[in-house]
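Hey, can you fold this one?
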Amino acid sequence: MSSISQGIAAIAVSMTLGIFSWGIAQAAPGHSGPHGGSGQMMLEQMREMHRSHKHGHDFKAMEEMTPKQGERMIKLMRELGLALPPMDSHRGHLIFMNKGCVVCHAVNGVGGDIGPSLNASDMPSPMNAFDFAARMWKGAAAMVLMQEEELGDVITLTGQDLADLIAFVHDRKMQKTVSIDQVPKRWRKKLAQ
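Sure. Predicted structure:
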């Protein structure tokens, strides 16, 4: 079995167990594969989780991959629908402000109190993007009504938008920079009411 095939198999098993979403969310912008910095952290977290399993997983294949092989593997996994889209908390911050999420949800003390606050410090760690999406789905009916009432229309999100929002609500460092000045004027008026 080639290194790439072994790496794909190892990551597929990890994704099934919910670890891969954490690794991608923690990856720095422009991260090119399972190497260095956050990629190394992802490998360590996967190993730690799997230590308690009776069966073993070989992550050596992932460590031996070149950055180019890692990029190809991640690209293939995304094309096959096996991997989350890249998560960018900066883009998530812009979506949170511009789409109007801030009218109902507060971050760093900025925003409405209609819905729950979305402070990263209150989010489960490690982050599980699927759990977050499931919580949104559970509140979807109420959110739709509130969006129509407060924003005048329902917010539409792509899968990429949702991935970026999830990254933002789990990024403590990014959230510390949030201020009322970043809220678009049309939404700031709603917060003042």
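Residues 3-79 form one domain. Let me know if you want another pass with a different chain boundary.
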